[in-house]
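To the team - nicotinamide-adenine-dinucleotide complex, inputs and output below.
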Amino acid sequence: MKKILVTGGLGYIGSHTVVELLSVGFDVVVIDNLNNSKEEVKARIEDIAGRNFELCIGDVNDAATLEALFVKHTFDGVIHFAAHKAVGESVDNPVMYYQNNVSGLISLLSTMEKHKVSNLIFSSSCTVYGAATDLPVTEKTLIQKAESPYGTTKILGEDIINDFAKHKEFKSILLRYFNPVGAHPSAKIGELPLGVPNNLVPYITQTAAGIREQLTVFGEDYNTEDGTCIRDYIHVVDLAKAHVKALTYCQDMSHNVDVFNVGTGKGNTVLEVIRAFEKVNGVKLNYKIGPRRGGDIEQIYADTSKVNALLGWSAQYDIADMMQHAWAWQQGLQD
Ligand code: NAD
Ligand code: UD1
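Output:
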């Protein structure tokens, strides 16, 4: 394997993955429409990796753009990040989500089929498990009807790939991410949330930076150790590295599709995350306890034995590293 197409490669997880791909010797071509990223991220990725890559500013829904890319390059694999990802926005604008996330995937698959390109790594999410009762969740845990159109696009994406791969010389790995957080240790790339963040860690760093006045902890009456929700937070660099492992595994596997949880296997409560942030950074966070947020599940964390054994991957960074790198990135943004 040599040349990889990365869709959405300037985004949060994509940019970290491109760094890892370049660092281990892959040639990379990125297609990104800059819908949720900035062109300057390209130079930052190249600076970290010490190598360049080709960027096509374009939309995966645009068949002509994809066709031109696949004519120009012979790809050995594709990593598909390009999608919208805001749960609340998907409730308000479901068509936009189905259009971008589902049609975008179909457009990509038909171009891959035409050019006989195999080996697709797909960004799925632990959201497919819904409010699972048996924890930790394994890849065999039942998939539940999604709570949002965003979640539905991930379940549909998995189904479409499974159907597509059935009768073809086509291989794909579905990676179900738990909660990606943190930033590159160099603080040159990280997450760029638009507007007021919905997710916990960007809200924490923006509060510490004085951009937000106060963080609200959504509920402390859950049936957990300290009453706050539990999630499996995974450092974005660890997650990026899982994609590199998945590519190698994908081309060698004897079956068409496989699925892996990508998390640390360890759950942290909201209060534990806050305390880890305060301790590692020596910063006091202004927060209060508020009511539960509608739609939140009490707890979820991954059984990672499959990804550990078959991909030979496990998370290296802990919650303190995640909070330290997230804060370094936030501080860099203000310079
Ligand atoms: P992101 O928004 O930072 O990155 C997505 C990138 O894709 C952006 O650069 C955006 O400009 C681009 N893009 C969007 N639609 C496009 C299109 N039609 N054509 C070309 N480019 C397009 O998001 P992220 O956090 O890096 O997420 C990457 C993938 O992982 C998404 O599929 C997302 O659903 C999935 N995922 C993310 C999380 C998370 O918490 N971040 C969790 C689970 C799954
Ligand atoms: C959300 C999405 C999920 C997506 C994930 C990662 C929903 C219902 N789910 O998950 O699909 O894959 O983001 O992008 O939106 N919290 C606070 N205060 C805040 C923000 C969050 O207490 O200001 C708490 C939440 O209640 C939750 C935890 O922090 O317990 C994590 O929240 P968040 O970062 O939004 O991720 P998820 O809700 O797990």
